[in-house]
Specification:
This is Oxidoreductase. The protein is mostly helical. Helices cover 67% and strands 0% of the residues. Helix 2 packs parallel to helix 13.
Length: 273
């Protein structure tokens, strides 16, 4: 990253980023301007939460149909049910953590991991960054794993940037938070789920999507795991081109999430949802 006083803002000038930010803003404005939002915004928010959780779970290996997620009530088993349940819990929890995020992002990340991992990890490993020698269960992200010292340092640096505030567009900040958490994989498990929940918190808390009706997770899932992994590799490379490609990818995901909720609004207007 840049060494300027506001390195996140500097990323907004990377090639293609400004256009992507503008495109997301237009897509979000279209959803908020829909007539259904004037009287049924709570329904749109609930549906966006469900679809966002489904999308995040899909990227973590549990690619269930939306109606299956909607129908099921038991997510206590191993494997895919646990992943879907964790995604649903995180989506519900994220909206309760906005105030804390502004003051202590690391506390929120600890809480998100606690919510996601539940009893899947030993109690002394839940909600804290991994220590030297501890492994990470994140099979769908095949990138070099930073050591514990690097994780601690970069998490501290990221939290400092977030608390200090930035002139960067919300989309840029959200993409960096998402990318850093995936690159670091600070926890023993559920890092992808936590990273996408943190992205949602930034987009909502920044005011870009205050009602949480534009689930970027839907877009990430729609773009596919291969594109997600390739874009993340660009971010991890640290090159201006790679970081820009990741931010543009996240912007496209947010735009697709907004499009999904526009379709929900249209369905509600027709009485079909």
């Amino acid at each position: 990253m840049s060494t300027t006083a506001d390195p996140l803002a500097a990323l907004g000038s990377l090639p293609g980023v400004a256009d992507s930010v503008d495109s997301v803003r237009r897509a979000v404005d279209r959803v908020y301007g829909h007539r259904v939002m004037r009287r049924r915004s709570n329904e749109v928010t609930s549906e966006a939460a469900l679809r966002g959780a489904r999308g995040s779970a899909a990227l973590s290996g549990a690619d269930w149909a939306l109606e299956e997620v909607r129908r099921r009530s038991d997510f206590g088993g191993e494997g895919e049910p646990r992943t879907v349940g964790a995604a649903l819990r995180l989506t519900a929890e994220a909206g309760q953590l906005l105030g804390v995020w502004r003051q202590s992002p690391t506390r929120v990340l600890a809480r998100l991991h606690l919510v996601a991992a539940g009893k899947a990890e030993p109690d002394d490993a839940v909600g804290r960054p991994r220590l030297h020698g501890e492994t990470v269960d994140e099979p769908l992200i095949d990138l070099p794993l930073p050591d514990a010292d690097e994780v601690a340092g970069r998490l501290e640096g990221l939290a400092g940037l977030l608390v200090a505030g930035s002139a960067a567009p919300a989309l840029v900040t959200a993409a960096v938070v998402h990318g850093e958490l995936l690159a670091l994989r600070p926890f023993g498990s559920c890092n992808g789920l936590v990273a996408r929940a943190a992205e949602r918190i930034v987009l909502v808390g920044s005011g870009l999507d205050p009602k949480s009706i534009c689930p970027a997770e839907v877009g990430h899932a729609e773009l596919g795991r291969a594109a997600y992994a390739a874009a993340l590799e660009g971010y991890v490379s640290g090159t201006p081109e790679g970081v820009a490609a990741w931010i543009v990818h996240c912007a496209r995901a947010a735009e697709l999430g907004a499009r999904e909720s526009t379709a929900v609004c249209e369905a509600l207007q027709r009485g079909a949802a």
